Batch of 2 targets.
Target 1
Amino acid sequence: MSDRSSQLTMDPITFEVMKNALLNATEEMAYTIRRTAYSTNIKTRADFSCAFFDASFRVVAQSFSQPPHLSSMKTAIPNALREYGAENLDPGDGLVLNDPHRGSSHLNDIALIAPVFAGKTRIGYLANMAHHVDVGGSTPSSLGVNREIYQEGIIIPPTKIMRRGEIDNDVLGLILENVRAPHETGGDLRAQMGANLVGAIRIAELMDRYDVGQVEAFFDELLDYTERWARREIAALPAGVYKAEGYRDNNGFDDEPVKIAVAVQLRDGSARLDVTGSAPQQTGPLNATRSNTLAAIAVVIKSLIDPRILVNDGLYRCMDVIGPDNTVLTATWPAAVVGAWELAQLTAELTLTSLRDALPDRIPACGKAIICNLGFAGNDPRKEAYYCYMETVGGGNGARPAKDGPDAIQTTIHNTENAPVEEVEINYPIRFARYGLIPDSGGAGRFRGGLGIRRDFEFPDCDTIFTVLSDGTRFPPWGLRGGGDGRTARFILDPDGNAERLPSKVSITVPKGGRVSVQTPGGGGFGHPLEREPDAVVRDVRDGKVSHRTASETYGVIYDAATWSVAHEATLAQRERLERSSTR
Amino acid sequence: MSDSYRIGIDIGGTFTDAVVMDENTGDFRPVKVSSTPDDPSRAFMEAYTRGLDNQGLTARQVGFVVHGTTVATNTIIQQKGARIGLIASEGFSDLFEIAWQIRPNLYDLDYDKPPPLVPRHLCIGVPERIDAHGEVLVPLDEAAVYRAARKLAEDGVEAILVCFLHAYRDPAHERRAAGIIREACPGLPVCVSSDVCPEYREYTRASTTAVNAALLPAVGAYVERLEDRLGAVNPGSGLFLMTSGGGIIASGTARQQPVQLIESGPAAGVIAASYVGRLAGYENLIALDIGGTTAKAALIENGRPRLAAEFEVGDAAVATTTRDKGQGYPVKTPVIDLVEIGSGGGSIGHVDPGGALAVGPQSAGAAPGPACYGKGGSEPTLTDANLVLDRLDPGYFLGGELRLDRSLAELAIDRRIAGPLNMAVEEAAAGLIEIANANMTGILQLVSVQKGVDPRAFVLVAFGGAGPLHAAALAKALHIRTVLVPPSPGVTTALGLLVTDLRHDYVRTYISKTDDLDLPALTAIYREFEDHATGLLLSEGVSRDNVRFVREADMRYLGQSYELRVPVARLSESLPGKMNDAFFAAHRRQYGFATRDEPTEIVNARLSAVGAVPRPSRRQVPKGGPSSRTALKAKRDVRMPGSTEPAPTSIYDRYRLQANNRFTGPAIVEEIDSTTLVPPDCTVTVDDYGNLLIDVD
């Protein structure tokens, strides 16, 4: 397709070569972190992101990413460089920071920044951000129900932790003394610093091949190119203002639902997320900073436009979050914020849903809509040491307009891997009692919502502080166009005995030998269940994903269990019967 | 006269290549026949027969045949694997449904996981449990295993796999279960995870085992068919297959372990590169294989290709980076660490909506093929671009078998690229090639700089039909000084089949702090491996004198999840210290940093058992003087990389070049299966084995 106005001013070949070199550099940083980190959340579950910023603090390239990291880095890194003074960073230096109220999302996300030089010219900055298993505070894994940020853990303003390639052990020591898993955190921080060193070498190699002026021109060109392409794509989405609202369980202190209201404004090639009307900033961990909320709109828009468009400052120029400060989605100091990603998940789902009529062929039903942060801690008798472990659990994806939602998967802003059962059991005094899909948890529909996950933990060796910082136990993931809701989340103490339901934000001590069950939501269905292909229903029943009862009473499908074939006439009759009773 | 020949047969998507090698002289002759995808054994036998006929040989003169095949990969990619059932620990039978719980591309609202290797109704949990420390928590419910096996058999499965938690640590339950299944379902193949992949991380282990089980019936039958057909003409000859790791295994072993064959074809190319490189006197090489749809790169250090421990098979066989994880099925077997991208002669160029020029990964394939083939293709490909710049001779493509149409190439480039970008057709063609080169430079970087290796100290070995056309420009981009183009680059991969050893790899998870290493326990593991390997190699016809062992271990800092492989010297008190030293050095080399202050652990014990296969020494080509005039067949104007105008260029006939011939670019060397481009300022020397050594500096 030809469009003269969209042409690059730069030689398109040099452009492509430089773009790939830069992306390779950030990918290599990601590879280094993953391969060398110590904590399961980073090395196995890949809860980290890497990026390169130019000398004007604009994000130019990023690796494989967790989106809230990227939107956080986009704000927090420039803020840190301005506050500390970029001119105070020499080659081999590195800054560490984690303060959400300086522009990131929660204290667990620790960022490392390193300057990149070409000769004596400061060409830009490498940064990476990773979710650490614990940063101190009231509760193991720093997932507590607290009133203010000071209770959530150690707050690190932009601080020099590397000088001329050497780690400042005073600073590192101060941080490690304040966290519950110092061996792992130390290993993770070294991995993050190592990644920046690797990235700096790669970028220096790029500088070898081109002169500084050429590279700086390339940064401008790349960002303009991305912006131009993104704006054209956004402008092709139907203009208008689109609204949706929903609720989180509570703020962890009282039992009031917390309202989230979004209005998506699509106009002139830009996308703005207006959060006016959302609940005020909460006393408790369920608060998100403005830059954390930006991830929601960024992920949704990026998902709706040409997938080849890169995520960089050019894309971010096309979107922002508007509305007053001090709502639950635009929280400010001294709000506690560790539950921010639980908000971003719902905000992203609502942003998608707001567009359901504007883009009827593309918008899925609501997915699991939680992160499901879980913390585990205790005195491991085998290692004679305190341990601290955290993970999150996938769930159902919403059904799509033309196909089912995937089962057991991470959704919207979130994409961390599961930790293998065997790896966790080898390393921690945790034993799994089961790990599988939850039948019937996906919302019924012409297309079925994905199934949630049940993961049951047992603590054979010691009393364990078990923490949930999540949501989704009251308001289920919704279906679209007649599709049913997904099943809500459940957190259950002693699932095979008393089966006591736990709230979605809690920290309890489970005595040695005890068990907990974590059950994540299924996704919403899409379209009316009576329109579902009967063969698909029978296949689901045969696979144990849908029960016999749901098949007949919700989907109206009757089948021969010996041959797994649809009884067509009986199905027709059953569907007519269900239709009549629903219209009555 | 020699009575002793060996034959390598490599089956690709379009062609089946064979190389018949004289074991005494190392001379080889290539044969190319069309592949027969409906029954690859037909093309196999045709290549075999033609290879013999060409030289007037009889089947009795063939000592052994080595085969490289894509049959395993294709069976998985096309989802034609057998219907298999899983028996797992109760409560954990959903591991194929859950997989990694991630999306390879976060922004894809339409993503679907690859279909589970085993449908859920064929996954059955049975009561049993062993914990991480090897303690039995729940004894195996033998009646439940029996019932599960019967149920799966009634549902028509063609193989059953067993994967119990922590079976890498104690395989007793899995082995007992296998016995019960054999009793319940006589004749049904059974694969247990502790045999196929005795390493921790249950999903990867189960996936590897499932891929093996899914391949067993089809690949087993295929290999058996080859054995029968070969046996009919020459009952005495052996049949071996190339593994993903670049070794060969006897056909009988391959029938049991088809999961070893997934990257069989690509591995052979890398082995060939190391062979031709070593003969020419180079041990540090980067292999570059550019075919019709993909380009592959691999690193060879000290004569040995790099191996990776794990990869994914699925839509695309992907390398071992974090990128794109979750598109296929993880397979944990040794695999030559190669990177592949969709960039080959048939890759299509286009303008993206942001106004940038891009090439691939879409390919025009063999049909309709590049526009210039005149077979109905209208999209501009790399081959079209090379033709427009006169780098290819339209009358001598595949030795003249296919006449290329330059005007169709120009038309396609003009319509799709030059017109929209408002540039001349030649500029657009040069741009396409430059971008493809940039992408291919990327994979060369992935196998070198990203692994902490400086490519400047390496020789680039270029092969595959299109490799020699692009190699010099790629070498320049990476500051590589020397490019080596072997004779008949189009069949180099088949040659690789004949120049490797029998090889069996053993691994067992054995976790211990390095400083607390239990030396007798470790010794016992290596002994057990060695006893088993010796028996297997002897049964495959290797003499005891030719058996060698390489002991290695996977190590990491206590707390990490990814290991680095280090050699294990003779077991003695000083071993832990030596292993730590090797680990620190490897960590620094790989990641750029290392500390001696942090404790390390050993995770896996590994053994490679090698049955050496004698390498023929190649006969040398006739010697000539520095002048290459006798090989000069024409002059034509060609636009070279980096220049904006066509310049007069010497065209050489590869078959008439002699050792010691020298010439400088701009030049082109033509042979039936490939074209070598020599840019200006580059000097070519023909070595004693007929290799073109291009000095790029």
Target 2
Amino acid sequence: MNRNNIWIHIAIAVVVVTLAAVLGQIRRWESSLSTPRTAAPRSVTVPDFSGLGNRRDEAEVLVRFKPGVTVEQIRSIAEQNNDLMDDEYEAVKGLVSIDDLDDADVEKTVRQYAAMSDLVEYAQPNYEIRLDPSAGESETEDLLHREFSGQPNDPQFAQQWALNNVGQDGGKERADIDALKAWLKTRGSDKVVVAVLDTGVDYKHSDLVKNMWTRPDSVPEYVDDELGSIDDFQGFDADANAGDPMDDNGHGTHCAGIIGAEGNNGLGIAGINWNVKIMPLKFLGRGGFGSTKNAIEAINYAIDRKKHGVNLRVINASWGSTQYSRALEDAIRAAGDEGILFVAAAGNSSTDNDRRAHYPSNFNLPNVLSVAAVDRTDSLTSFSNYGAKTVHIAAPGRDILSTWIGDAFRDASGTSMAAPQVSGVAALIVSNQPQISVAKLRERLLSSVDKIPSLDGKVASGGRLNAAKALGE
Amino acid sequence: MGFTRDEATARAKQDLAARLNVTEDSIKASVSDQEFPDLALGAAASGEMSGQMISSGWQIKLEADGKSYEYRADKYQLRLVDFEGSNHVIK
């Protein structure tokens, strides 16, 4: 081989290698930036580490450190392991890519970081699957999307497993309502009003205040035949027959946050609706219990406001008992006649509502949805009531982080927390399809569930709420 | 201000003594922390609805004249469970 041929071969080799590197990088950028359009199968629960050697173009690991671990600490940890903190993903707090300078086995590196459980939330390979057409592109895209894009900047979003379950705290990946994909279509609308019929709502809470309903000038003050005129600017308190529905318990504020804590405001959590209007209706007192009579009073108020032009589409009812009330049933029916969906908690007695009825969830009305609670592994919770005929749908209801009185946030469990997930998704649907009827809204929620084998025979739809599917994503 | 565990126990004994017409000193009490299925502590009274959130409180078991009675309490309320066939809100 003469000297000229050698240089030609070297030049060709350099061009080929450079081209391959550039194409590989372009594919990686596409992976992290692209928006998945294909619904991913829901069966995949963990990334498949097998055969990564020929699917990855470099030995990188993605590590999400826990809140409080500083970038300096992360750099120091990486250096101690003879690794390099390669990149920091500002949109996801604590998430960095680690370049293994030893080019050690990726799985070993993942295990090394995952073992630092005090500091690390999770670690996984930065795998490049697109190069392998047999690897299931949509699954990979979906996983990447769930972890790296489309997330709001609310600092406690990572704890909201119900919205985006990436396996945190022993959860099962994708055992969630698929909020990230739903938000590609809509993040709610301030034209949609959802009533939280409960202990009231802390309408001054920093993460709720912008999404609280107030009576517009075009709607007259509420006038009750017996009570007279009530200044209902903030909502209605049927317990005190007054216009101030401030929450003095916390339960209603928790439900409100699930439905509509302001999203992407750099504060606290994200509600299912980043934008919505929450109408607080108080009938449960400070202890969290109240009379059926006051519940009816508050429903009457809601119907009146609807008739006066308020676009009230959903009432959330995270309460109940085993006592039947014909008057309450009639009030809820009347709400349905006005096009209001009534979403009710199925109850927390671990019992079968087909055999022992729980109200109002058991009212056999076309606008009532009864909601059971599942946990972060998609299992029916031990406390949740069920019923193949009378409980319609399941939704996340254990260890749910949301807003609380006193500008606070806390976890809570119960079918109380499951019902507002359904109410929230109902509001998303309405924001996307404002003219939808209550019958079609109810049907849409039920027909778009993720079928869960453990819910077969436990709830009528056999599945758990899926916001993305409900929106046709 | 709400109840403390001791205040709830004392109030429960006071209530039962009045109901049974016995002295408070003759009533034995045992109290344990407990999770309840709802905000009525799993003991809704007639005509009541309650938030369906798991809540924590105290189970107060009282003994008088050889019979057992159950009260449930949290910082907001005290309830007598299944007394003469129904639940009662004491406070």
